[in-house]
Amino acid sequence: MDRFIRVLEEHVMPVAGRIAEQRHLQAIRDGIILSMPLLIIGSLFLIIGFLPIPGYNEWMAKWFGEHWLDKLLYPVGATFDIMALVVSFGVAYRLAEKYKVDALSAGAISLAAFLLATPYQVPFTPEGAKETIMVSGGIPVQWVGSKGLFVAMILAIVSTEIYRKIIQKNIVIQLPDGVPPAVARSFVALIPGAAVLGVVWVVRLILEVTPFESFHNIVSMLLNKPLSALGGSLFGAIVAVLLVQLLWSTGLHGAAIVGGVMGPIWLSLMDENRMVFQQNPNAELPNIITAQFFDLWIYIGGSGATLALALTMMLRARSRQLKNLGRLAIAPGIFNINEPITFGMPIVMNPLLIIPFILVPIVLVIVSYVAMATGLVAKPSGVAVPWTTPFIISGYLATGGKISGSILQIVNFFIAFAIYYPFLMIWDKQKAAEEQADATISGGAGTTHSM
């Protein structure tokens, strides 16, 4: 085990540290976080629209009219269906902040570049016709929602890189000092913005004469589909949690690092489920692996599913240190915050506790995936339940009001307890012995002093 720790220290930590500090991944992570409040707000309306109460639909129709559900879900379209737009602005804004250039201008230019790259065509079936044709129309909702996430992120990074390089080379229009700062900044962004939009426009014209036809098609074929297939598989989920736990074991925020890469994939898979669920709550949902799969069923208590560990320490530990730590960690753990345990026991760089810390999430991924794949448990419905929602409640909400989601969380909690328990007892015995030895030494020193 000492050799394993040395490998982590010498090889994993340096690489993971560089990844954690990589500005583009940080910008993607922070840009996606910008969209989360909107998704949670939209999810609240989804929950209200599909409450699993007998006679609920009839009662709502009686009081609010036949089309009550369509009207109730207006905010869903205003939140989920603009996800790529928000991410396009957010990623560029955060990346520009790291380069210390005007972030507001960078975000606006990125948003314009994304819309320029998006074909304004929508499918249309004329009355009486058998074939669907593409016609020019407004901004297509399918591309500004989750399906456009990858294009939004790529163009946000590319446009901001072009923007900041032109700014840093001072190829800008400078206005006299007496001009208001806001006006001066808008003119500073004029040349970089024209350069970005010019590049995107030319590339779009080139793509339109190729079999790919658009940015969205080329990204979907070359990037989105392969990554979604991997990220949505059992193997991909196991690899992801293994990396998260290894990074946490070295003291790095594994969820943030891995989430910066895999987050967009899981978010897209979540929204695919949401669209199917919104059309028919009883339909078979396409994806098991989504953002909620990890947040709500695997990381009960935070990365490593440490809520069971906190409760066990509080109830069963003999060591005063661990019992007090359990009392301290139980409240944050209920809301899936695990730093008190990760750094307080500590689990970081602890050869004994790293074993269950890595093993528990892997086992929970396998158990949860099999339970959902076989139909024993409902799949995540696409409702963006906040990751801080206590378990049992979150499982019920995230499956669209299915009790099986809560039952699986309870099962996972006890699986985590069973795996952690023997390792905790060994660690507790060591800590209790250390406290006993310290007490003996202190008592001896006190006796010597009194003589």
Automatic annotation (TrEMBL):
Keywords: Cell membrane, Membrane, Sugar transport, Transferase, Transmembrane, Transmembrane helix, Transport
Record carries keyword Cell membrane: yes
Subcellular location, principal: membrane
Residue span(s) of domain PTS EIIC type-3: 8-423
Signal sequence segment: none
Molecular functions (GO terms): transferase activity
Location(s), subcellular: Cell membrane
Bilayer topology term: Multi-pass membrane protein
Transmembrane segments: 32-53, 73-96, 103-122, 142-163, 183-207, 227-244, 251-269, 296-315, 352-372, 407-427
Chain's role: The phosphoenolpyruvate-dependent sugar phosphotransferase system (PTS), a major carbohydrate active -transport system, catalyzes the phosphorylation of incoming sugar substrates concomitant with their translocation across the cell membrane.
Stated name of the protein: Permease IIC component
Organism: Geobacillus thermodenitrificans
